[in-house]
Specification:
single chain; 7 helices
């Protein structure tokens, strides 16, 4: 195990950009309102656990159930697509559950944090960087995600309801574009 600060910084920045927790703040606020409460610690730990397990066993797990990374990414892109539609159109597609654990695990920990983009990115990073450096990058990202999740109610108070509404629509369009890009990038590998 060889730790390299430059590699840790690089992998941390790549994961930070792909996970985009700042861009997901409107979704987090929506989930918090629907569920009543989100368990920030649990979401961070579960997402981190999923990412680390996928780093080591991702391709094998998918091949055992007869899937490839591209099929997995397409499925995740569809979930993200529907979340984006909810944000843009103000409609409800997902059944509202007042169970904080449900919202914490799905869709927050998976697929928003540990989603198809971050999981497939891990497989790419694994080809170029050591597992030890990637694990440190995952931990750094999970700490930052935890801080953002804990501060989401304060962020909502600062921005206000109108600000959240505007940000929700803007990020909904961005999320929609990401889901379409994820879909189109991976569908050509299946056709």
């Amino acid at each position: 195990m060889e730790f390299n600060f430059k590699d840790i910084l690089t992998t941390s920045m790549v994961l930070f950009a792909v996970i985009d927790i700042i861009g997901n703040i409107p979704i987090i606020i929506d989930l918090r309102k629907k569920a009543g409460h989100i368990q920030s610690e649990k979401a961070s730990l579960i997402a981190g656990f999923i990412l680390i397990i996928f780093l080591f066993l991702g391709e094998q797990l998918l091949s055992i159930i007869g899937l490839d990374v591209h099929s997995f990414a397409i499925a995740g892109s569809l979930i993200i697509f529907f979340i984006a539609l909810e944000m843009i159109l103000g409609i409800k597609i997902y059944k509202e559950e007042k169970n904080p654990l449900n919202a914490t695990v799905f869709p927050l920990a998976f697929p928003l944090i540990a989603g198809p983009g971050s999981l497939t990115t891990l497989l790419s990073l694994k080809a170029a960087f050591s597992n030890a450096n990637i694990i440190v990058a995952i931990v750094i990202n999970m700490i930052f995600i935890y801080i953002v999740l804990k501060a989401s109610t304060k962020i909502e108070k600062i921005i206000g309801e109108n600000g959240i509404g505007i940000i929700r629509k803007v990020f909904g369009v961005i999320l929609l574009a990401i889901s379409i890009k994820l879909f189109t990038t991976n569908i050509k590998f299946l056709l």
